[in-house]
Amino acid sequence: MENYDAIVAGAGIWGCTVARRLAEAGKRVLVLERREEAGGNVRCETDAETGIEVHTYGSHIFHTHIPEVWRFVNRFTEFNGYQHKVLARYRGKTYFLPLGLALVNGFFGTDLTPPELAGFMADENHSKALFDAFFRGYTSKQWGRPPEEIDPAVIKRVPVRSSYDINYFNDMWQGIPANGYNALFEALLDHPSITMRRGVEFRLDGGRGMAGGDMLPPARIYYSGPVDALFGCKFGHLPWRTLRFERETLSVADYQGTAVVNYTEAEVPYTRIHEFKHYHPERRETMALGKTVVMREYPAAWKPGDEPYYPVDCAESRGLLSRYMEEASKVPGLTVGGRLGAYRYFDMDRSVEAALAVDVEWSDWRGSDPRPQH
Ligand code: UDP
């Protein structure tokens, strides 16, 4: 096998960003991906019947307030200017998220102004009614446990405002890659020093990287699969939430009038419905088409063999994670990252930010040992 300076195992957004930076720093990079395509769970596909771009693993909207991240991704794609709004359906009525004047006035039938909102919400009956309608059921479905048992940081992802601003994100920049997410990944990996191998499982064997049955040449390793799997889950499995999706093509031009509607009551088994054509309002042909693709999202407990989506932050997972991270720190030349590797509820921009912080300027492959002469 050819020699490489770096092995990047996992071609998600963290892995592809690291691979690109390594290549631009003069390293020869081998990217290994267990699936047939790069992109991780950001991967999309074009629906054959309608031409609509489907986010295979659920909606992904790129949003950030980090200038370096925005500059970096804009080297590889243009964005279409899409601004994400999320609606919530509760007991047969539709409301605007996030928590702000539109939701409160819509739900209580009030006409509060910004200065009046805080006083109104200070009444426990109001805050409890709102929380029970929009957060209790959804959170229980999403995490399989009541909101009281969830890290408050998770629910605080949803902005709270005293205005009518119904943008779902507070960030300065957002959008969907104009030519789709897949083109972004292809552009990231399009460098003469990057070689990609698809459909290959990466594993460690005595500190050496293995691709399928092949031992890899000594090289730095950048791994973004689940960190427990790297060590044969020897301390036990890190807990995850997984998702099941039900996709349907409907013979209507527009099913729900927006990209995402959350179903917040516990009795509806899914958490949200995605309608993908709305991510590209600039694609006139698919917008005008008398068909649409929708996808219902059902969260579930993860078991071995399922796709991991959301890390579950709890005392047990924190303990396990620190044991696995300690193991990882003992492997010379190994860096672990990304949502799965770091076991962090990263948004895409946070994965890019973490990848931009990875050291790529080294000259020997494992600290004090000289890099083998190729
Ligand atoms: N959440 C909720 N109701 C909603 C939307 C969100 O209770 O209508 C809570 C839920 O616990 C969820 C968290 O807020 O896991 C974060 O929501 P976000 O929309 O950021 O989730 P993601 O899109 O990352 O799945």
In brief, what are we looking at here?
By secondary structure, this protein is of the alpha/beta class.
Number of strands: 19
Gross morphology = globular
Question: What is the number of helical segments per DSSP (H or I, 4+ residues)?
Answer: 12
- How much helical structure, as a percent, in the residues? 25-40%
What is the CATH level 1 assignment of the domain at 6-44 and 61-79 and 176-235 and 311-356? Alpha Beta
Q: What would CATH call the homologous superfamily of the domain at 6-44 and 61-79 and 176-235 and 311-356?
A: NAD(P)-binding Rossmann-like Domain
CATH architecture term of the domain at 6-44 and 61-79 and 176-235 and 311-356: 3-Layer(aba) Sandwich
Radius of gyration, in angstroms, nearest whole number: 22 Å
Task: Measure the end-to-end span.
Answer: 12 Å
Biggest sheet details: 7 strands, mixed
Oligomer: single chain
Average pLDDT confidence is: 95
Unreliable parts: 368-374
> Which structural class fits the helix and strand makeup?
alpha/beta
- Which hetero ligands occur in this complex? uridine-5'-diphosphate
Query: How are the strands of the biggest sheet laid out side by side?
Result: 7-6-15-16-17-14-18
Determine the strand fraction and express it as a percent band: 15-25%
Q: Give me the CATH fold name of the domain at 6-44 and 61-79 and 176-235 and 311-356.
A: Rossmann fold
